[in-house]
């Protein structure tokens, strides 16, 4: 069915474990402080990731 064997790379493992850690951290925040705290953290994370992506893009262009 597949032309090449599926394999787990380090990047895939890192992203999977990072997502799992983010998920339980946000669930803990939600249980402790409610939805507004989770939304605030999510917006801050999105902002930081976007800034990081822009900086990487600028470095590659130089």
TrEMBL record:
Native species: Rhodalgimonas zhirmunskyi
Keyword Transferase found: yes
Protein name as it appears in the record: Histidinol phosphate aminotransferase
Key words, A-Z: Aminotransferase, Transferase
Superkingdom classification of source: Bacteria
Gene Ontology molecular function: transaminase activity
